[in-house]
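Q: I'm building a small set of examples for a reading group on sequence design. Run inverse folding on the following structure and report the sequence directly after it, with nothing in between.
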């Protein structure tokens, strides 16, 4: 029995869930999200709660039970509150700025990187162009875009230069020492 799947998802005020035989749609103040689901689980909406039940006792049904409950929970949180990821830029001359639908990053290379901001994501630059805040309703899309930006210049372990997540700790290494 899935410990996650058996808990119902509570719907906050202003969030509406629609279930069809193959699709779950969640609509709220921050947008609209939809997710297809497997036929081995059954999704019902009753009294402001979304219940996910498995149809069989197979291993796949057990896995899908918890998976779709968590996906529905993420969609409900996304359309009601939204998700945020913060990226810190550390390095001399490293900076970021938003130009229309592009995030332009100066990361110590000979040219600047321009990253297209996907639809449904908003990007803000704070703290003297050293912090990038990625926010949106879709948790997967926010995380994917943040990881793509981070991969442009991952933090190095000697000086800590690069792009890191806001809550990430970089373990610094000791540099070379001269032998006397």
């Amino acid at each position: 029995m899935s410990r996650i799947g058996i808990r119902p998802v509570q719907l906050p005020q202003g969030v509406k869930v629609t279930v069809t035989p193959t699709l779950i749609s969640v609509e709220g103040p921050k947008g609209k999200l939809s997710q297809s689901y497997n036929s081995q689980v059954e999704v019902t909406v009753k009294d402001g709660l979304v219940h996910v039940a498995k149809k069989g006792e197979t291993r796949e049904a057990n896995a899908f039970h918890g998976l779709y409950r968590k996906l529905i929970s993420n969609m409900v949180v996304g359309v009601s509150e939204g998700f945020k990821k913060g990226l810190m830029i550390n390095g001399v001359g490293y900076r970021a700025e938003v130009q229309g639908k592009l995030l332009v990053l100066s990361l110590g290379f000979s040219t600047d990187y321009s990253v297209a901001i996907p639809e449904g994501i908003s990007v803000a630059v704070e703290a003297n162009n050293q912090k990038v805040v990625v926010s949106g309703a879709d948790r997967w899309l926010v995380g994917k875009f943040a990881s793509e930006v981070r991969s442009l210049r991952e933090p190095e372990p000697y000086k800590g230069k690069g792009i890191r997540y806001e809550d990430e700790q970089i373990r610094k290494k000791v540099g070379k020492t001269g032998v006397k």
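The chain has a mean pLDDT of 92.
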